[in-house]
From TrEMBL:
It comes from Streptomyces fildesensis. PANTHER family: ALIPHATIC SULFONATES TRANSPORT PERMEASE PROTEIN SSUC-RELATED (PTHR30151:SF38), ALKANE SULFONATE ABC TRANSPORTER-RELATED, MEMBRANE SUBUNIT (PTHR30151). Residues 11-35 are annotated as: Disordered. Residues 104-284 form the ABC transmembrane type-1 domain. The keyword Transcription regulation does not apply. Its main location: membrane. This is ABC transporter permease.
Length: 302
């Protein structure tokens, strides 16, 4: 009875807490207030944080696993979409005979040649339009008109101009990759902070020094963004270009597989295109980290 009366008349503590009753563990004082000692004795759960590459691979691996299960249980017919095991078998078969390497080398040669021409043309035109007022008036409007043209719609005209050999395929890749580089590089040149330009002029830099030490370094991030788009666009154009009037290449291999309903080879070709694009994007990212080591941007939250 006295204990009950003592609890009834006990004044409330700060924050609305009540005084501990007899036999309960003593409260522990921390920075926030009173904390139950029993809660402190419970073990805390620690989450094991996986490395970022492992977490990035979790999504694709889940897709591949689901894809394989759909084929294994017959939910998806092999003639509609071959499972990953059949795709790997086709890759082993073509790789063992050397046929896959020959087609891959032909596609890489065309893409590298087209990219070299397209990227070079895009950079030169962007510098001319970005640095000179007359170049802006003459070049930029023309490039904006040409950029609106569908690349694959030019295929009949390119065949008339260059025939059905390697040249039209390289020309299509060059045409499709020049515009992403031009647009992003031109925007980066015109987007250089004018305060940096005024500061450079204040310290005595001339026109050539201004371009070399301020304008072009400031345009590098935009150029790299355009290069990433150009690498992706090159493979998209090549898929169609190699399926028309070609005798080798990954696109030609996929076109031949279509006649025999070899979806495993078709999917293999698509995966090769995707892996090549991912590798090229990784190389540009590596180049970006080297060239833009001075710039630290937001890398995402936890």
């Amino acid at each position: 009875m006295p204990d009950v009366l003592a609890e009834a008349v006990a004044p409330p503590l700060a924050g609305g807490a009540t005084a501990p009753s007899a036999g309960s563990p003593p409260p522990v004082q921390d920075r926030e207030g009173l904390v139950d000692a029993a809660s402190l004795s419970r073990p805390r759960r620690t989450l094991v944080r996986l490395p970022r590459p492992v977490r990035r691979l979790a999504g694709p691996l889940l897709v591949v696993l689901t894809w394989q299960l759909l084929g294994t249980f017959g939910i998806v017919n092999d003639r509609v979409l071959a499972p990953p095991s059949a795709v790997l078998s086709a890759a082993w078969e073509l790789g063992r005979t050397g046929e896959l390497a020959d087609h891959l080398l032909a596609s890489l040669t065309r893409v590298v040649s087209g990219l070299s021409i397209g990227v070079s043309a895009g950079v030169v035109l962007a510098v001319v339009a970005g640095l000179f007022r007359l170049g802006d008036e003459l070049v930029d409007s023309t490039m904006q008109v040409l950029r609106a043209l569908p690349v694959l719609g030019l295929l009949p005209l390119v065949i008339i101009w260059f025939g059905v050999g390697e040249t039209p395929k390289i020309a299509l890749v060059a045409f499709g990759t020049a515009f992403p580089v031009y647009v992003n590089t031109y925007a980066a040149i015109r987007g250089v902070d004018n305060r940096l330009v005024e500061s450079a002029r204040t310290v005595g830099l001339g026109r050539l020094g201004l371009v070399r030490h301020v304008i072009l370094p400031g345009a590098v991030p935009g150029f790299l963004v355009g290069l990433r788009f150009a690498l992706t666009g090159a493979w998209l154009v090549m898929i169609i270009a190699e399926q028309l009037n070609a005798t080798n290449g990954i696109g030609y291999l996929m076109n031949q597989a279509q006649s025999w309903y070899r979806t495993d080879i078709i999917v293999l070709g698509l995966l090769i295109y995707g892996l090549l694009g991912l590798t090229a994007d990784g190389l540009v990212r590596l180049l970006e980290r080297r060239l833009l080591a001075w710039r630290r941007g937001f890398e995402g939250g936890a």
